[in-house]
Amino acid sequence: YGTAWFDYLSQDVDKTIHYHEVLSTYAKRDYETIITNLDLSKARSIVDIGGSTGTLLKSILERNLHLHGE
Fold it and tell me: How far apart are CA 5 and CA 25, in angstroms?
């Protein structure tokens, strides 16, 4: 499209919303394995450095109430 991906997305609010919805759906479906197998029992905090809406982080925090997440 002649421009960087996120620059392209930022030009169209609907495309940006759709992009984040798709990523969120992907995360909910495919990250289940990570969430159920990740041992965070000794951790106190976790940081999501992804770039979308934090779906994976939210799911991890819902199952690990002792964690603080950003």
Answer: 20
3-state secondary structure of 31: coil
Instruction: Please state whether the predicted TM-score (pTM) of the whole model is above 0.90.
Output: no
The first and second tokens of residue 30, run together, are 């495919």
Could you give the CA distance from residue 54 to residue 60 in angstroms, rounded to a whole number? 10
**How far, in Å, CA of 54 to CA of 21, rounded?**
11
pLDDT, tens only, 50-68: 767 788 888 899 999 999 9
CA dist 32 and 14 (Å) reads 27
CA distance 24 to 60: 14
Cα distance between residue 62 and residue 40, in whole Å: 12
